[in-house]
## 1
Amino acid sequence: MTAYIIRRVILIIPTLFIVSLLAFFLIRWIPGDVIDLMVAIMQQYVSLGSTTTDLVGSSEEVVAQLAQTLREQLGLDVPAHIQYLRWLGDLFRGQLGDSLWTRQPVGTDILFRLPISLQLGLMAIIFSLVIALPVGIISGIRPDSGIDQVLRSFAILLVTVPAFWLGTMVVVYPALWWGWAPPLFFVQFGDDPLGNLAQMFVPSLIQGMLLSGIIMRFTRTMMLEVLRQDYVRTAWAKGLRERVLVVRHVLKNATIPVITMIGLQLPVLIGGAVIVEKIFNIPGLGSLIIEALEKRDYPVVTAVNLLMAGVVLVVNVLIDVSYAYLDPRIRYD
């Protein structure tokens, strides 16, 4: 087991290297240069009443000189591969670079927002399991019954509903009917635990419901497959009670592929959090990467993508290791 874990951890390194390459260069291919955006904002600021008039009616030469100065100050005046090598050197020193707009270390923003996204994701997974596992088990035990038809229809509904639509409906209609709206300011858990949980309840429930549809259907399928095994039929024939049979013999084997499905849905959960965080004013990593994409803040986008990839890879390793605990027949050499 130890050798297997070491091999998997070593494989994470080249994977993250490839992810860093893609994240670093693909963002630079998006139309719209960060320097042009900065210059345009400066010109707009001057036109709105600043006392500085150097850019008002400025010639193309002055604008080009300003753009070149900004490129030199931000380190964007060298080829992209040189920028990547510099960023890679900072990464080896434990630094993720500085934001092009605030000139603050990217790691500072990530350390502030990462616990918020982790809390949202953890609560969403808890809600999804609380909804999906009991429903999937009941549907698997009573296949093709009336309750099974209802539960399967409910699962299909949850799978097909988009996160942005459900989140928008939850915001719009309660505001029209009861005057409720998401808080404008985020409450930190350390400042007000109950207020924080109340604020995170609705967005995490939405995320959990969308994730539970897939887990629910997969749990039902695996329950049906395990219930058809010979050892289960033998237990039935010996008169073992249904509850004991399901809990001791069926559920543990049926949840192994379900755990795999949860790991595969983790990127979807992170991607969906981008929309949910924006709708409910939650300052997590999803909101951070959206703001960085809008501003073409290259270091922030690269760092957040690298972090998300690392989380997904580590979680997948933990899921693979958990197989040996759930099924004693599984051994890693």
Note: The two ends are 6 Å apart (CA to CA).
## 2
Amino acid sequence: MEKFVARKPEKEVISMRIPLETLKKVDSRAASVGISRNELINQMIQYALSNMEDITEEET
């Protein structure tokens, strides 16, 4: 069996501005599933990136 090796993923600290109402919804959802705001936002970004359609500049 392969040995487990714990790793800390590389992350970058950023700042972002979002509407207060959106932040309240994010905080509420994060609390309801028992994860941090940061973790929920990361998961939502990953989901969006994995599920968005590829659009070329010519199509816009």
Note: The CA atoms of residues 30 and 40 lie 6 Å apart.
## 3
Amino acid sequence: MAVKKQVKTTEVRQVTYDRRTGSRVKSSVKPGDIWSDWQEGQERWLFMSAHDDDIVSGCGLTFLAAVEAGIQVFAGITTNGKMGYCSPKVKKTIAKVREKECLDSFRIMGLDKSRVYFLGFDDGSLNLQGGRRFATASATGPVLKGATGLQNSYTWLLRTVRPTRIFLPSITDLHPDHRMTNSEMVISIFHAQGNIWPELGAPLEKIPYLYEYPTYSNFIAPPELRIRVTGELCERRLDAIYAYKSQEQIELLVEALRQTGPIEFIREMKFDIFDSSACNKLFK
């Protein structure tokens, strides 16, 4: 497969943000006008994925918009990608190949490798790696601070990056690894804002805002946010996808995104903690 060359252009890079509230839509080129509780100069966005290519394919335009706006951006890659081989010849080397492709892709999108966190969980079996447990000699997952499990690594990552916003794959996604990334991160936020497991870092002062991006499946509810970009940023996103040369189906994904055009949709999630007063109102 021929690798697509990056397009050189002098086109002005512009991002337009749209927020839907009921039947009304508010639009602005200033992110602070659209994103809830904007913290000028203090925004830290953490993009989480199950697999290395999920972010660029699912919310690459949002990612690029954040970079263009000067926001501090970080990426967390949960799995090692070892199930992404398309030929028996690369079965034992695909994890290293994909890690390099991932760093190349993020470089195209303007993210330094120091802000990419590879958590190293086995690809294709996150349902077996949830929770947190103390590591033993037979531990199969990544060991961090004497423990293993998704909630261990996610809580540490949250306390390390301390994001103001987190972007996750949709909870309704067809891929179980994507659903696990969503659910295990959300419960890890609950852990990270408390005093539990102090060896993983200082508690978060504030719960970050949560957002979902689509990969294989539709949202569980209509999205509230739309990101529109100029053609140059759209092409850069496609160039970043082409970095994953080992994934032979990449041409189909690029063609589908090209047909969609320079737009992307994001759903704002709620971090819901049970409130008995809300239920009690139903009985009055």
Note: The radius of gyration is 19 Å.
## 4
Amino acid sequence: MDIIKSFLLEDGLFRGAFIAADGVTDVIWKKHGYPDKLRPIFSEAVVMALALSAGIKYDGVFSLQIKGNGPVLSLFVDVTTDKKVRGYIVFDAEAVEKAGETITDLFGQGQLIFSVAAVGQEPYQGVIALNKNTLTEVVADYFALSEQIKTDIIMRQKKGNVRCLMIQQLPQKEGVSPEIAADLWETVQILAGSVQNQELFSEKLTSDEMLFRLFHANKLMVFPAKTPVFECRCYRGRMETFLKKMNASERASLYQNGQIDVVCQFCGEKYSFTPDELGDASLVGK
């Protein structure tokens, strides 16, 4: 299942999203052949990036990155406005096999970084330390401390696939007292937490039916589903431009067997360039 299902509760007092990205994660996994041990955290990162991007309006790219000094040095996922997803992991394979499974076991001391690069706007970045055991706890901590937005995230796994149900309280509405808002928030939290794995991972129950079961008494309004897909944005022209911007002598040192090979970190596509293509015929071979 690959779906982003956004919704509102209580006349817009709360917003939420149900996310799954099994196919997207499978495609990335098959392209790279990463260790099975890293599938859970990577699947969660893909789904979390989609969940967080679903709650903001942007025309550009939303990215989620986890950086650390442990067996995994970096995990990166980005999502375009039209929900095109790509990602990669940088890790020490031997150290990963010996490591535990919590986010701090894998990344050691590090940071979770959210970034939004939107057309015509100043870039936005949020950073928080990896001081919890799970990605869900780290993200919830970020919203509580940095954004001060009440956020509840239900993240479940089954056979390498992930389901996420996220709800957030929106800015206070006129006519709704803080006490009433707090009571309603507690109610929707309890309802979200009551969701069963057989509902989240059901092949028969639609996302609309699942959300109706949970929130039918909370003025539920659902939006049309969106489908995330894997798509890399690399292309030969971009790689060529990057190489041509390098210092000529530095570029010359990259030639092996008469060409420069560049491999995309996101999709594994290989691009090869000759000295003639890069204007280095006079440098290479001297």
Note: The radius of gyration is 22 Å.
